[in-house]
Write a structure and sequence with these properties.
There is one protein chain. With 137 residues, the chain is α+β, with helices and mostly antiparallel strands. It has a single domain, classed as Sandwich (Jelly Rolls), CATH 2.60.120. The strands form two sheets. A four-stranded antiparallel beta sheet has the order 1-8-3-6. Strands 2-7-4-5 form a four-stranded antiparallel beta sheet, with no helix packed on it. The chain is globular.
Length: 137
């Protein structure tokens, strides 16, 4: 299995980061593993941090309805981190899951120091908002 820094470097979100930045990021993250059907986040949970999916899939559940499936390379928990508020959706693993978790206290300085990653995160979030708007039409 590749190192956490190597796994992060293979993801579009962190593409083009130099090795020393990937190593520093990996040092501030914890790897987590979940079995199929395990709840990772529950709506209302505080200080959940950002999770980046390294392997597997999750389902985002809002109002008891499965709203989205996220897979390797995607992330969740960003809204809670960026707004410093409790989680607005629940997330459950669809398959065995391996992800990397970073707390808000470590993520915010990282994003401020790496504007390209911040832009990619915001672009992904804008796509999600655009998709959600299309569901409402």
């Amino acid at each position: 299995m590749p190192s956490l820094a190597g796994s992060l470097g293979s993801l579009a979100l962190f593409a083009d980061l130099p090795p020393e930045s990937l190593e520093a990021l990996a040092a501030s993250m914890q790897e987590e593993e979940f079995g199929e059907g395990e709840w990772i986040l529950r709506k209302g949970q505080a200080n959940a941090g950002l999770r980046v999916i390294l392997e597997g899939e999750v389902t985002v559940v809002i109002g008891g309805i499965d709203r989205a499936v996220l897979h390797a390379g995607m992330f969740f928990g960003e809204i809670s981190v960026l707004l410093d508020q409790p989680v607005g959706a629940s997330v459950v693993s669809r398959t065995p899951l391996r992800c990397a978790h970073i707390d808000r206290a470590d993520l915010i300085p990282f994003l401020l120091d790496h504007p390209t990653v911040t832009l990619r995160l915001l672009q992904a979030e804008a796509r999600r908002v655009d998709d959600a708007n299309r569901w409402m039409l």
